[in-house]
């Protein structure tokens, strides 16, 4: 095993053909000693003379990626909702990159529903805010991607940007939670309807996974449905901690 000796006397053993040094040693002289001696001066009997070579270590800095915390997707919105605000946290230029300038931008995958949001960020802060307003009269989903970029570049494999995304859903109906009542703990939904139009009721335990409970064609100006459990839903309302419902107008079945 060869030894590498710093000009100030520090010694590092090589592993294979590599050594590890710190960035503070850049530009300083090192000596390669393939035949280290116990006394540091003379070769042992029968051993070749000590040979040294000097080289300069040049350590190149690589830009670390900036950071931003994950962004949770907000609860579904209703058509016609006003401006929405989302907080951004964990914003930084990355480890040991405090002097870099940061820029935050946001892009919507569906600008016809959610125009590209506006991001407000103050240099030096670790938080920022994002605002968007759904287009009036439109429903659907949009994936919003937020990018934080620094000015450190990508030379030598550096990374100068990072992304986080969240999903925005806009619905023509209102998802809402019904509190389980006392007594038989059944849940009844009442909604206004248009005669002849088709509707469906969906339910969810968490506003993420949804299942269809019932589809009906309205015969009057209102409709009432009571959740009694199977076969419409997986369990009776008394057997769950909470349940969310959505009432939607749908196209006629074919």
What structural class do you assign from the helix and strand content? mainly beta
Lateral strand order in the biggest sheet: 2-1-3-4
Alpha carbon gyration radius: 33 Å
Q: What does the average pLDDT come to?
A: 80
Q: Percent helix among the residues?
A: under 10%
End-to-end Cα distance, whole Å, is: 79 Å
The number of distinct structural domains comes to 3
Q: What does the main sheet amount to?
A: 4 strands, antiparallel
Structural shape: elongated
CATH class of the largest domain: Mainly Beta
Our estimate of the beta-strand percent is 35-45%
Low-confidence stretches: 1-5
Overall CATH architecture of the largest domain: Sandwich
SSE string, helices as H and strands as E:
EEEEEEEEEEEEEEEEE
Give the total of beta strands: 17
Count helical runs.
0
- CATH topology annotation of the largest domain: Immunoglobulin-like
Q: Could you explain the architecture of this structure?
A:
The protein is mainly β. The protein folds into 3 domains: 3-56, no CATH class; 77-171, Immunoglobulin-like (Sandwich), CATH 2.60.40.3450; 176-250. The protein has no helices and 17 strands. The strands form 5 sheets. It has a 4-stranded antiparallel sheet with strand order 2-1-3-4, with no helix packed on it. Strand 8 (118-121) and strand 9 form a beta hairpin.
Short characterization:
It contains no helices and 17 strands. The chain has 254 residues and is mostly beta strands. The strands form five sheets. A four-stranded antiparallel beta sheet has the order 2-1-3-4, with no helix packed on it. The protein has a four-stranded mixed beta sheet with strand order 5-11-10-7, with no helix packed on it. The protein has a four-stranded antiparallel beta sheet with strand order 12-17-14-15, with no helix packed on it.
